[in-house]
Amino acid sequence: MPDIPSIEPASITAGDTVQWTRSLPDYSAASSWVLKYRLINAAGKIDIVSTASGSDHLVSVTAATSAGWAAGTYSWQAFVEKATERYTVGNGTMVVGRNLAAEAAGFETRTTAKQILDQLEAAYKDYCTNGQGLVQRYTIAEREMWFKSAADFIKAIEYWRNQASVQAATEAVALGLGNPRHLYVRFAR
Fold first, then answer.
1. Beta strand 137-140 pairing with 72-82
2. N or C terminus of the chain with fewer C-beta within 10 Å?
């Protein structure tokens, strides 16, 4: 059994068992303080209640419970309660990743921006291959686009390439991998 971390995870996978502990000396579980979490985003909310583990607070979510969580980036807030008292003790963001084991074959893993970018690049290739101008109208994900020239295609491709890059960077940062859009240089003597 792996060690239980003593801080909130930056990312979890829906369908996994999730555990961590928090030591809050001013709000000890042994003194009847209860640590609670609220995770929230535009799609919904998740409430988590810890249990006492000596004087620490143990957060333990079963795999069956986390399986029902929607994937996405959530803002979270941690707070302790005892009788009529309530104090906020932390906040941050947490990414809930998809449980790919529960997905059907053919599940789309690309972001919306990446899907549009791929379709635009295919349309541009078709545009160039078919005599530059034969394909000026293209339907992408129920959106119809008209192009007057190759420059229109290139402008749309650059826009969606940037959007896909931003989404990939956001996901990498949320997973603790660092921002791939940052370039670091070291100078040596």
1. unpaired
2. C
Scan for tokens 């309660």, then name that residue: 81
Q: Could you tell me which CATH number the domain at 11-102 has?
A: 2.60.40.10
One-character DSSP codes across 24-91: -GGG-GGGT-EEEEEEEETTEEEEEE-EEETTEEEEEE-HHHHTTSPPEEEEEEEEEEETTEEEEEEE
Contact 183, 176 (CB under 8 A): no
Q: How far apart are CA 104 and CA 43, in angstroms?
A: 21
CA dihedral for 100, 105, 107, 108, sign (positive or negative): positive
In sign, the C-alpha dihedral spanning 14, 42, 58, 12 is: positive
The owner of tokens 């333990």 is 60
How many whole angstroms separate alpha carbon 127 and alpha carbon 121? 10
pLDDT digits (tens, 9 = 90+) for 58-110: 999 999 999 999 888 899 999 999 999 999 999 999 989 888 777 777 777 77
